Amino acid sequence: MEKIYILDTNVLIQAPYAVECFEDNEVVLPMTVLEELDNLKKEEGEKGANVRKAIRILETHRGNGNLLEGVRTEQGGILRVEKNYLNVELPPDLLEHKSDNRILKVCLGLSKEGLKQVILVTKDILLRIKAQLLGIQAEDFTTEQVAGHEEQYLGRKEVFVSEELFKDFKKKGVPVEHVYCCDSNGTCSHPELFENEFVILKADQSSKKTQLGRVEKGVIRKLEFRKATPYGVTPRNVGQYFLQEALMQPAEKAPLVIVKGMAGTSKTFYSLAVGLEKVLNNPSGEYRRILICRPNALFDSDIGFLPGDEQEKISPLMRPIMDNLEQLVDSNDGERYSNEQELQDKVQEIFDRGLIQTEALTFIRGRSIIKTYLIIDEAQNMTPAQIKGIITRAGKETKIVLLGDPNQIDRPYLDDRTNGLSYAAEHMKGSPLCWQITLLSEECERSALATEAICRL
To answer: Is residue 422's pLDDT more than 60?
Structure first.
């Protein structure tokens, strides 16, 4: 049975191309959706840009026919605008003038015709609930969804190998076809290992014998930077050894690093340590600077008209970065906070010298960033389109580090399956230019209390 998909405005705001994602089915835009797009087309930042792109796509289809009657798409479906069903009755507690309820009227009207299966597509959970109460089938926009959190790529795997091959691992490496995994029932199988995937290699005769490696062109090889101490920092667990390996690699070999992990697993701290090591401790010219951005530093809105320059406006949002820098510039735990002014001066000197810059992501659009160590913190609060926009800004000799926790999302319409960090991780899996690692909850190093809270709460 052919289907009619009715799209909510928020779907087009996040994915302007959504009208072309439903194959040979019929896609309907209620008139109220066009009105909302019209009201949003002058918005600043990502939202306005996506709305304008959606409008241009509609204009392209309008050029092929009458949208009120329906226009055939390249995918074999039909796209049309629906202006009828204004007189469809809703329950008295649903106000008719609200845009969401006007969309529900269209859904009900088309459903009563009974010619095709009607499905409402919206990012709004509450609208999906209201649709269900009215007997309307409602779905999220799934084109950009990836696997659930528990099924997502971790960038690491534990495998076994024969004692003989284990002995020669450091010299020759181990071909991936010679390793195996065992489940809880003792059943063994050969795992699928992706390029750049990190490996905990264990000897099958003695599981206490362990080596750390990485997949490279079908061979598991030893870590190159296991003994490194970037900016005086030493790895404290397996996840940090893998993280250090990915961050220390030059931009030409590892231009994109994706790091997922819960709070306290030192994602930001370690990324800053490696950046300072490359730019300040051993200034080989590999990078000109460290550039730090956060999505909630107004990627999708203007930085406002209040007094102060860009740096002054985004400084409160960069406070977590400053907290990490305080620990890095003064490694003496006992004396670090004995002189607050001296500590602040040390941090400020790094900024004054231009070694570290913080920037609102609003101004990344359209740029080509050269020879830069670029850290995007809290990347789980970005949409897939925004992540793509950031990655495609990378110029020559630039390294992009995406950090975040897919379980801590502060942005409406995003979840662990639709956020940009998870989207990039799943789609870049296996790329020779992308290195990934997920830090585990037991690898939290913030404090004993933080570790306990992560495990219990």
So the answer is: yes
